């Protein structure tokens, strides 16, 4: 879809892009050899931008496009850069500022899951994330990326698809879990739990040396990151239906094998000890 996109060219909005498509110009290459419909931008400037786009794509620089496309349109990069993309999600101890720290962070590249735990292998995250040109998060622009940069002291310069903006543009609200429910993505024993519960699991693990609490925390964190792929694919396909390129729709991804399972006894105990309820039913 990326090479069918013209929204990253200054002065080209959705209506102009549609006029370009309707004129028979469906790709960047088409625009170099066919006459453009009347546009605010001169043909000379337009074609300069297209030539630069072709060059940046050949150099495999997705950041060029995320810098220019509206955030709700960053999904357009996924088809071209899927092989170097990674889904990311962070859990913390619940504090911001100096008292805050990362408890766990998971990565999923569409093939395998990798996870990093405070006090064990968190330093390995820096080397792994550097291998990827494109990251995918939900609300990562506001939270995950700034938190990582601040607390791990690294610069996250990757191109970034933040699904919060893409899904919001499609009318989906309610946070990550709300979007999952709206799109029929189930969470099994972890359904109804949120980021605050992940904080409680970490506290239980540290206080009681409860390995089951850590495993449940990792199961929660990994499910957050793994579910980003079907969310992005669903959003991609809904966006495609608004274009002449519905044949470009992506198949639903197969779920990966998960390395951890949530412990229901631990979930019930932590909920009970903190006077919480699951699905509105006190435990």
Mean pLDDT: 93
What portion of residues belong to β-strands? 5-15%
Approximate shape: elongated
Distance between termini? 48 Å
Q: Which consecutive residue ranges, at least 5 long each, have pLDDT under 50? A: none
Helix proportion: 40-55%
Give the key terms:
single chain, 283 residues, alpha/beta, 2 domains, two-stranded antiparallel ribbon, elongated
Description:
This protein is an alpha/beta fold and 283 residues long. The protein folds into 2 domains: 2-59; 79-282, Nucleotidyltransferase, domain 5. Helices cover 44% and strands 11% of the residues. It has helices at 14-22, 28-33, 43-58, 62-68, 78-81, 124-129, 144-152, 163-169, 175-182, 195-208, 211-226, 228-240, 264-273; strands at 85-92, 102-108, 113-117, 134-137, 159-162, 277-278, 281-282. A 5-stranded mixed β-sheet has the order 3-2-1-4-5. A two-stranded antiparallel sheet has the order 6-7. Helix 10 packs antiparallel against helix 11 (211-226). The N and C termini lie far apart (48 Å).
């Amino acid at each position: 879809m990326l090479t069918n996109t013209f929204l990253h060219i200054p002065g080209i909005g959705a209506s102009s892009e549609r006029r370009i498509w309707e004129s028979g110009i469906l790709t960047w290459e088409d625009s170099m050899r066919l006459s453009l419909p009347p546009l605010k931008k001169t043909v000379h400037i337009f074609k300069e931008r297209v030539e630069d786009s072709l060059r940046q794509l050949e150099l495999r620089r997705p950041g060029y496009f995320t810098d220019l496309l509206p955030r709700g349109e960053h999904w357009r990069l996924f088809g071209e850069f899927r092989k170097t993309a990674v889904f990311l999600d962070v859990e913390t101890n619940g504090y911001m500022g100096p008292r805050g720290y990362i408890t766990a962070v998971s990565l999923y590249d569409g093939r395998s899951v990798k996870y990093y735990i405070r006090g064990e292998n968190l330093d390995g995250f820096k080397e792994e994330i550097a291998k990827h040109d494109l990251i995918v998060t939900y609300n990562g622009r506001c939270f995950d990326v700034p938190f990582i940069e601040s607390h791990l002291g690294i610069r996250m310069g990757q191109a970034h698809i933040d699904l919060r903006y893409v899904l919001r543009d499609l009318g989906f609200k309610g946070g990550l879990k709300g979007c999952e429910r709206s799109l029929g993505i189930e969470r099994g024993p972890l359904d109804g739990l949120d980021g605050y519960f992940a904080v409680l699991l970490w506290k239980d693990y540290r206080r009681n040396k409860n390995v089951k609490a850590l495993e449940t925390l990792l199961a929660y964190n990994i499910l957050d990151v793994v579910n980003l792929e079907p969310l992005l694919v669903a959003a991609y396909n809904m966006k495609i239906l608004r274009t002449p390129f519905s044949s470009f729709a992506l198949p639903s991804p197969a779920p990966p094998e998960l390395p951890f399972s949530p412990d229901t006894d631990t979930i019930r105990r932590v909920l009970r000890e903190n006077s919480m309820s699951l699905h509105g039913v006190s435990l």
